[in-house]
Write a sequence for this structure.
């Protein structure tokens, strides 16, 4: 099945794009987590016009309710790469490959820098997607560097497939993992290739494995869409939210500062309408 | 008194800018009508994220309530011209002149073209501001071309000052005016200067007066701010909502398509934060 549009991300930008595409009668998919953690975890939001003094959870719930009333369902998956196939986009999720004529990137911004060595070894013993690459490391040793508690699910899944799983939590909450998973509280400083092994250097002992899974909420836009023009952690966009790749639009934090909910929502609306215009011109 | 920022307009862009400036502790003024007619008159708005299926009046009321809770009061006035004074802006309202270090234009877009002759005669027998120019036409004859019912107040006010007032409603609702005001239902086609009189040509009889007041909800951005770079009815803006004039920002419909509530609200937020950055750099 080929969708008209695939929206990647479920924060204010993605939700806004989805509502507008729905109004315009487009056949689209919105992929991400059920609620954006960046919204639901906010303490208080004072400047989202029309919803005075909401907590992050209240705003996230208002978005969820709005999607539900509009009959829009979120496809829970994690997109690792989007390929520009010329006439359409191939969207690599953890569970399957999706196809869409246009894409809207609403994945938020990557907070925190890459670990030295991470970029160079990506695809060669460093992976962003446990679901995608677990089969390659059946019976082998892996490490998981998890930037949020929800990555523990991925580590638990890996422990069913791999011989040994070492988990490095990059957050303060207590971990809740199967006994089989070894939790190591260190600060990774570098990832190295030593012979056919990968080594996580840190302020503690070396972690020597076959693959290092680095799991963050969002991956950097240049890694997400090969060929995308970026400026640091951000995608370069025009006023109509188009990027340098025809049919690829972006909205929200990924397009740059300020990181504000209503800015993202406004851009999602514009990205959706620009995608509609793009689809009409393509026919 | 010199404000940090003056926001011109009370639609979603202006309201959003005001809420964000409030959060940032700025000393600002927001000038316009109590509620934006373009919001309150909308039938149904399906894609303002978080407020599902609201009527225009409900959205307008949600904005009003949010402003009230934030302790923000709208200054009801109509701005006719904004002068760039170098270090600050002089803002000509109907009742007084305001001063601000930065301005945010959120006046919406002018719908409908200028009447032929209107632009050429502006300031010479054609006026956009009854309150400003009424004293010049004391005891004289004037015509008012009113684009919305609220302009009837201006015509009534002029009838207290001028000898004869002819009112041309450009809308379908019934008029409700003092007996002294002559209502003429015609379609103006041109405004001419004939000797020292101004003549409104139409599909009916010529209207011969000393001044023609053309009263619309918004005036074109180039007329509002002399020197502003425009593209047709729109202000040219950068991604941070800055214009070609330092300290002058814009948001909402005035910056171009799409004309969408949440797009305007998002841009208002960005314009406000860019104004904050501008003020900080100025010090």
């Amino acid at each position: 099945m080929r969708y008209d549009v695939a929206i990647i991300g479920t924060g204010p930008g993605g939700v806004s794009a989805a509502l507008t595409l729905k109004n315009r009668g487009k056949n689209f998919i919105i992929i991400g987590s059920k609620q954006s953690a960046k919204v639901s975890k906010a303490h208080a939001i004072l400047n989202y016009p029309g919803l005075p003094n909401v907590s992050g959870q209240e705003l996230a719930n208002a978005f969820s309710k709005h999607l539900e009333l509009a009959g829009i369902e979120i496809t829970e998956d994690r997109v690792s790469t989007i390929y520009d196939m010329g006439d359409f986009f191939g969207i690599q999720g953890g569970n399957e490959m999706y196809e869409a004529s246009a894409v809207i990137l609403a994945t938020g911004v990557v907070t925190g820098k890459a670990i030295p060595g991470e970029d160079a070894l990506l695809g060669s013993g460093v992976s962003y997607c446990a679901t995608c690459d677990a089969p390659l490391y059946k019976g082998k040793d892996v490490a998981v560097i998890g930037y949020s508690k929800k990555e523990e699910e991925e580590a638990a899944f890996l422990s069913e497939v791999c011989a040994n799983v070492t988990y490095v939590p990059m957050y303060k909450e207590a971990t809740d993992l199967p006994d089989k998973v070894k939790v190591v509280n260190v600060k990774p400083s570098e990832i190295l290739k030593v012979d056919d092994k990968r080594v996580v250097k840190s302020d503690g002992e070396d972690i020597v494995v076959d693959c290092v899974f680095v799991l963050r909420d969002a991956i950097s836009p240049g890694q997400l869409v090969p060929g995308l023009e970026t400026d640091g952690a951000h995608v370069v966009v025009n006023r109509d939210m188009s990027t340098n790749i025809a049919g690829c639009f972006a909205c929200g934090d990924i397009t740059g500062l300020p990181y504000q909910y209503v800015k993202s929502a406004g851009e999602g609306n514009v990205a959706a309408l620009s995608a509609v215009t793009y689809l009409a011109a393509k026919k």
